[in-house]
Design brief:
Layout (H helix, E strand, L loop, with lengths): L1 H12 L2 H49 L6 E2 L2 E8 L9 E7 L5 E8 L4 H19 L4 H12 L8 E9 L4 E7 L5 E3 L24 E6 L5 E5 L2 H4 L1 E2 L2 E2 L1 H11 L6 H11 L7 E8 L10 E7 L8 H7 L4 H18 L1 E7 L5 E6 L8 H7 L1
Antiparallel strand pairs: 1-2, 2-12, 3-4, 4-5, 5-6, 6-8, 7-9, 8-13, 9-12, 10-11, 13-14, 14-15
């Protein structure tokens, strides 16, 4: 045909090198097509793996940040968490769980690492401390023993944690901290926190669990446990700090929730650089409590680098003469028993008592703390 003859004439005049170039280009097109096919398949496979990974991490994160009922025992309780960015896989954790006799165990902490690597360590810290609380120990004892068992197990990381037990029959919240910010306290029991002689974080090479506070929680009391991300959020390149955070919490009213507090921090600050976690507690209507707060300090003769007794007593408002007398009593008792518990009952005239660890009645300190 005319078309066939035209093609033959065109082919006859095309140089050989053009045919070679056309062949190379055709091969390249086939190669690129194959590469695109395999790249698309690899992308789909990676997306499936990513979805599975996010599901696995999400399940573990849910285990570290459990849902909490609106009321536990005689506490109205709310919790909230907000990751700094991306997948919620930071080192923050919280927990609230029922204990015998209507008591409620509380935890909030932060492992220094972030991402997937921190999740296993976060779970280890949370469940170790919780297990000791469930075994009947006081918060101070739970942190102290957990600190010893976790020593060297967090690698290059460390953990801060605050543990508490609310006892409705006593009307108290007993809490202890290992390097963690003290709780915000609003209402009848509001007071400047005593941070002198604070216990260090878990797994930093030093014993922890030397301090404990027994806080009255009558009707109208609110307490907020929070991670340091809330007070380290910045306004004009300055950290918020605990005083501003307490003011913001008070401004939210008597029914403030943990989510409202976190949302307010995000809205009023210039940027959040860390995960945010909070647990906000309100005493149930009709709750009664003892009048005085009690601050406790454990001293051990073997702990040469332990807490400073005089700074603790001074922070509790104990006069100088009483501090000197207490120091002598502590030294005498340490020489006999090797360990003592110093208690200061807060008030206009603080009352100081010194007892050997275990007490002369033979009862463990956790029972004395629970009875207050």
């Amino acid at each position: 045909s005319a078309v066939a003859r035209a093609l033959e004439n065109v082919a006859a005049v095309i140089p050989m090198w053009v045919w070679v170039a056309l062949g190379v280009l055709s091969a390249l097109v086939l190669l690129l097509g194959a590469n695109t096919f395999f790249a698309s398949a690899r992308t789909r496979r990676l997306e499936r793996q990513r979805s599975k990974l996010m599901e696995d991490v999400g399940l573990l994160q849910e285990a570290l940040l459990p849902a909490v009922p609106a009321q536990m025992g005689e506490l109205l309780t709310t919790v909230a968490y907000r990751p700094a960015s991306g997948l919620a896989a930071g080192g923050d954790f919280y927990d609230a769980f029922e204990l015998p006799d209507g008591r409620v165990g509380l935890l909030l902490g932060d492992v220094s690492g972030h991402g997937r690597e921190a999740l296993a360590k976060t779970a280890l810290v949370r469940f170790t401390v919780r297990a000791h609380l469930e075994a009947g120990m006081s918060p101070r004892e739970a942190i102290s023993i957990a600190g010893r068992s976790l020593d060297g197990r967090l690698g290059e990381d460390f953990a801060t944690v605050i543990a508490g037990i609310h006892d409705p029959s006593a009307g108290t919240l007993t809490y202890a901290s290992a390097g963690h910010p003290p709780p915000l306290v609003l209402g009848p029991s509001a007071h400047p926190p005593v941070t002198a002689a604070s216990a260090p974080p878990v797994d930093v090479g030093f014993p922890t669990g030397q301090r404990q506070t027994v806080l009255p929680m009558p009707e109208g009391s609110s307490v907020a446990l929070y991670s340091d991300g809330l007070i380290e959020a910045r306004i004009l390149d300055e950290p918020v700090g605990s005083e501003h955070l307490a003011t913001w919490l008070a401004g939210l009213g008597p029914d403030a929730t943990a989510k409202e507090l976190i949302d307010l921090v995000v809205r009023l600050t210039d940027g959040v650089r860390d995960d945010l976690a909070a647990v906000v507690l309100h005493a149930a209507p009709g709750a009664s409590a003892p009048a005085a707060r009690v601050e406790q300090l454990k001293l051990d003769v073997l702990d040469a680098d332990g807490p400073d007794l005089d700074s603790f007593l001074r922070a509790c408002g104990v006069p100088r003469s009483e501090r000197r007398l207490t120091g002598r009593r502590v030294s005498e008792q340490l020489a006999i028993t090797g360990g003592v518990m110093v208690e200061v009952r807060a008030g206009e005239h603080p009352e100081v008592s010194v007892a050997p660890i275990g007490g002369s009645d033979g009862k463990p300190s956790r029972e004395r703390a629970r009875a207050r």
